[in-house]
Design brief:
two-stranded antiparallel sheet; binds heme C; 19 helices; heme; mainly alpha; 7% strand; C-type cytochrome; 44% helix; Cytochrome_c-type_DH; Cytochrome Bc1 Complex, Chain D, domain 2; 405 residues
Length: 405
């Protein structure tokens, strides 16, 4: 029926349409869909759970349904949610990343508004929040905002940086809200701006340090970063956990110019540091047990020399950013948890990796990681069995070894 009506009364081309079209792009760059969609739910209809130390919060329906969505929002009200975290029914919890979106420009906010308002309205009421007192009181958030949120603070635009760098900074800081995951938080869950992008563990993964100096230390160059951010795999390893979804829902839909701008900002216009090759012979001598376990459990997929099989199958370990990272968290967590198979499209699918939680104890995993780090990179600190035990324990507490994960 709708299709028939469409042919009888084709929508007239109005000035609002290009704006809505632009809004669709801004919504992709800002990844609204990731949070406002429940697992297997319809896009933007809300209901994704956000576990917090104070209970569980659910995202809302942002389709223009009058009853259950944002159909009654004026542009001013919409702007207030993005800028000040204020909804018509009170303050929003900072799980809605207004602490980054407040930097989004007015014209982009208006485009977003036009885009959401012309979507088909869908009636859907997400579950009620289950938060403990006093976190369940929205007015308490005014105090949080007063302490930790300064909407007057603008995006730094240092003189001497290119227009491309400035665009990248806007995409990373404001729309992409990359800092929300990659910045450490204080006890009240507020981002620590003195450590912007310095890395933070969430959902059991280390959202690694992505400051220029750290990315260069990992050996990333422009071409590899472009491949990683737009396809999820590269010569230096793959994206996994929430970062895979950022690529899937957001980054791969961005224009080449915008991806290039982000990379210019991320690498700060600088070249990678010199390679830091390891030494596989001395590594085998120093960590014979680690080498033995690598051959027995890992080489079938990652290759005896650690150079991977094919990119589609299993990534190389010899240039791998997770192996080179200053903090070994992800290398250890991947071995413990394994990774699910991923399928982006017909050409880009990859097999998963099994969990070794039951096969390998803490001391053996420590030696395995030490072997890999010594064989294929250098300069990383020695991993101890205590460190592996600590990570295993926290993953266990958070339920990542249950069958659902
Ligand atoms: C990191 C997760 C996340 C992202 C990304 C996100 N949101 Fe939200 N948003 C939430 C959560 C959670 C809430 C509910 C907060 C609350 O109840 O206090 C929310 C609330 C809202 C509300 C208030 C709705 C209401 O019923 O009052 C609007 C409007 C909104 N988001 C729009 C957007 C738009 C537009 C984008 C993209 C530009 C976006 N959100 C991206 C998590 C997110
Ligand atoms: C059945 C094949 C398979 C086996 C066996 C396997 N892996 Fe993997 N591994 C993979 C795949 C596939 C990925 C990438 C998955 C993804 O990102 O979705 C991966 C990812 C990783 C990563 C994360 C780095 C990155 O770039 O993704 C590390 C570290 C790793 N493997 C180490 C090991 C170690 C150590 C062992 C042995 C204890 C091992 N793997 C055994 C297939 C395997
Ligand atoms: C929802 C949380 C989340 C958001 C938002 C997010 N990241 Fe990530 N990111 C992660 C996690 C977790 C990892 C570690 C897993 C991996 O390497 O794939 C990661 C890894 C990365 C890596 C790999 C670095 C390395 O050396 O291995 C890069 C680069 C990166 N993120 C850039 C970005 C950029 C740019 C943005 C904003 C557009 C962004 N991230 C937004 C969670 C996030």
């Amino acid at each position: 029926m709708t299709i028939l009506l469409f042919f009888l009364f084709p929508p007239s081309i109005t000035a609002a349409q290009p704006l809505a079209e632009k809004g669709r792009y801004i919504a992709a760059a800002a990844d609204c869909v990731a949070c406002h969609t429940a697992e297997n739910g319809r896009p933007f209809t809300g209901g994704r759970p956000f576990p917090t130390p104070f209970g569980t919060l659910y995202s809302t329906n942002i389709t223009p349904d009058g009853e259950t969505g944002i159909g009654d929002y004026s542009l001013e009200q919409f702007r207030a949610t993005m800028r000040h975290g204020k909804g018509p029914h009170g303050n929003l919890y900072p799980a809605m990343p207004y602490t980054s979106y407040y930097l989004v420009r007015d014209d982009d906010i208006e485009a977003l508004y036009r885009y959401f308002m012309q979507l088909p309205p869908v009636e859907n009421r997400p579950p009620k929040n289950r938060l403990i007192f006093p976190a369940n009181l929205r007015f308490g958030l005014s105090f949080w905002n007063w302490l930790y949120f300064d909407p007057e603070k603008t995006l730094a635009e240092p003189a001497g940086k290119s227009a491309e760098w400035q665009r990248g900074s806007y995409l990373v800081n404001a729309l992409g809200h990359c800092g929300e995951c990659h910045t450490p938080r204080n006890f009240a869950q507020a981002m620590r701006f003195d450590k912007r992008f310095a890395g933070n563990v969430l959902e059991g993964w280390d959202a690694v340090d992505i400051r220029p100096q750290s990315l260069r230390r990992q050996g990333w160059n422009r071409a590899q970063l472009r491949q990683l951010l737009t396809t999820g795999s590269s010569e230096r390893g793959t994206l996994f956990g929430e970062m895979y979804r950022v690529m899937q829902h957001s980054l791969r839909h961005l224009s080449d110019d915008d991806i290039n701008a982000m990379i210019t900002f991320l690498l700060d216009d600088s070249e990678a540091l010199p390679e830091r090759p390891g030494n596989s012979e001395s590594a085998a001598q120093n960590y014979p047990g680690g080498r033995g376990d690598f051959i027995a459990y890992c080489a079938g997929c990652h290759g005896r020399a650690g150079s991977g099989i094919t990119q589609a199958f299993a990534p190389g370990m010899d240039n791998n950013a997770a192996i080179r990272a200053a903090r070994p968290h992800n290398a250890i967590a991947v071995i413990l948890r394994g990774l699910p198979a991923q399928r982006l499209d017909r050409e880009r699918a990859r097999a998963g990796m099994p969990s070794f939680h039951r096969q390998l104890d803490d001391a053996r995993i420590a030696e395995l990681v030490n072997f890999m780090r010594a064989a294929w990179s250098s300069g990383g600190a020695e991993v101890t069995a205590e460190e592996v035990a600590r990570i295993r324990h926290s993953l266990e507490e958070e339920g990542y070894f249950s069958p659902a994960h």
